[in-house]
Amino acid sequence: MIPRSFQTRILSILLLLGSALSAQATAPNVLIFFIDDLGWTDIGVNGSSFHETPHIDALAAEGVNFKRSYAANPVCSPTRAALMTGKAPQRVGITQWISGDSPSLDLSEFTIGEAFQEAGYRTGYIGKWHLGKTDAVQPKYQGFAYTAAVNRAGQPASFFYPFGKGRRPSNVPDLKGYKPGDYLTDALTDKAIEFIDQSSTAVGAGSQDQPFFLCLSHYAVHTPIQAPEPLVKKYEAKQRVMLGEGAPQMIEEKYNTLARGQQGDPAYAAMMENLDWNIGRVIEHLEAKGLLENTIILFTSDNGGLAHRKRMVSPTSNAPLRSGKAWTYEGGIRIPTIISWQGHIQPATSEAKIITMDMYPTLLELAGLPLQPEQHLDGQSLLPLLHGELGEATEDRALMWTYPHVHGSGHQPSDAILSGDWKLIRFQSDEPTELYNLANDLGEQTNLAKQYPEKVKALEKALDRWLETTR
Q1: Which residues contact 451 (CB under 8 A, 6 or more apart)?
Q2: Is the dihedral of CA 308, 312, 314, 320 positive or negative?
Q3: Is the pLDDT of residue 10 over 90?
Q4: Which end of the chain has the least Cβ crowding within 10 Å, N or C?
Q5: Using 50, 70 and 90 to split pLDDT, how confident is the model at 132?
């Protein structure tokens, strides 16, 4: 007897492939918007009232908005490695953002770019990579035939032309023909549109020479917090109306650190609006070329918003989530994720727990390509979720993290596990273990570890088993 869930999965795949093949002569394109440091509540559809993100909100309304989506790590490079490989970051030896002599993503990994390239896709990577500093470990050697604006650091030297000078690792290359005042997020979008145009012909007819797989990895909204002046002035006025002239609300946190309690930074909000406008530019261009209905779109982030650090005021708040980037509290790891394919995926909001590693097998299966189970070891295809089925694999799933590093935000090494609504955080120091029930305490304010010692013991056992098998 074939299980009902398996029958549903096979039917979903057949229907998806059948509709795709009947509607288009080519395989579906894949477009990833990979945003840097974007917090869960930085977009309007997830609760922001200060930031204005109509294009991202519209994308969420047209696809599946995953409300319990998590980054593989609370900082960028490990999560980026997880997206490329489908593996927990520690499996590939990247648990910290890459600097100096940090390890790079090994060329032996069969990346998602290589999987699509091997399937005949024209592959492209634009923007932040941060998986290695030398020329030999850049995206063109990891399955991406076209690359542009990939620097050797975790942020740009400047968001304004000339996007840095000299030979600093943070300078952004390959951007010619721009002038003083031109903005980096606009320039990366220009490159993405150029790539799409090179991959297609017959504007308006939807004809393509070959399908494309593009990762548009914006440097926004990472520091430096810089935005076009007219937009900044707009949000300075909005700040005065909504928040008054006082200092931002700050929350005292662990290790003498501070977290921002509410959104209200004009420059950051201006960066968000510009980013949103550029997301809209790409989607509108796809529609104008007749390609939107044949393009799978993934929108996601590499970690939570920068809301928690030492001494300095951070540019965003992840409230009602606790903390932010570089911490294993919800604010540091819960991220926006939207998957859309117009005419093929029904709009929905999902409360299923998902994580970065899931994107590799999901995009393969959506595109009708064979899975790579020996590669994406820690990812699970979300195809059943995209068709309204929870699926056996995700129903009782536990997610886990390790960030075994001190970070400039004040974070001390920690591990975490989320099982059901129970979240355990164990700091690798003398700090007591913390246990929260997110169903009743989304903000992780009431530590229940002393009240539920058996739950702590069980979660720690599962966490230790995971750490042992993935290192």
Answers
A1: none
A2: positive
A3: no
A4: N
A5: very high
Q: What architecture (CATH level 2) is domain 27-394?
A: 3-Layer(aba) Sandwich (3.40)
Q: Residue 100: pLDDT band by 50, 70, 90 thresholds?
A: confident
Could you check whether 27-394 and 413-471 share the same CATH topology? no
The label of the residue with tokens 């939107």 reads 292
Report the candidate in 409, 439, 320, 337 with the shortest Cα–Cα distance to residue 70.
337
Residue 201's pLDDT band, with cuts at 50, 70 and 90, is low
pLDDT the model gives residue 165: 77
Whose tokens are 């001494």? That residue is 311
Residues sharing a CB contact under 8 Å with residue 9, sequence separation 6 or more, in sequence order:
383, 384, 389, 391
Question: CA 209 to CA 198: how far, in whole Å?
Answer: 9
Query: Is residue 9 predicted with pLDDT exceeding 70?
Result: no
End-to-end CA distance of the chain: 38
Round to whole Å and give the CA distance between 259 and 253. Answer: 7
116: region left, alpha or beta (phi > 0 left; psi from -120 to 50 alpha):
alpha
Confidence band for 204, pLDDT divided at 50, 70 and 90: very low
Find the length of the chain: 471
Domain ranges of the chain: 27-394, 413-471
- Give the whole-angstrom CA distance, residue 356 versus residue 465: 20
pLDDT at 187 over 80: yes
Residues 304, 72: Cα–Cα separation, whole Å: 11
What class is the 413-471 domain?
alpha beta
Q: Is the dihedral of CA 261, 266, 267, 271 positive or negative?
A: positive
Contacts of 291 (CB under 8 A, 6+ apart): 29, 196, 200, 206, 208
- The per-residue pLDDT for 391 is 57
**Alpha-carbon span 379 to 134, nearest angstrom:** 28
**Cβ atoms within 10 A of the Cβ of 377, count?**
16
* Token pair in block for residue 56: 């991202």
Does the pLDDT of residue 15 top 80, yes or no?
no
Separation in Å, CA 373 to CA 186, 213, 364, 428: 37, 20, 11, 32
Which string of DSSP letters, residue by residue, matches 103-153? PPPPTTS--HHHHHHHTT-EEEEEE---S-SSGGGSGGGTT-SEEES--SS
**Average pLDDT of the segment spanning 449-470:** 98
Could you read off the pLDDT of 243-285 as tens digits, one per residue?
988 788 999 999 999 999 999 999 999 999 999 999 999 999 9
- % residues pLDDT > 90 (the chain): 85
Burial call 63-76: b when 16+ CB within 10 Å, e when fewer:
bbbbbbbbbbbbbb
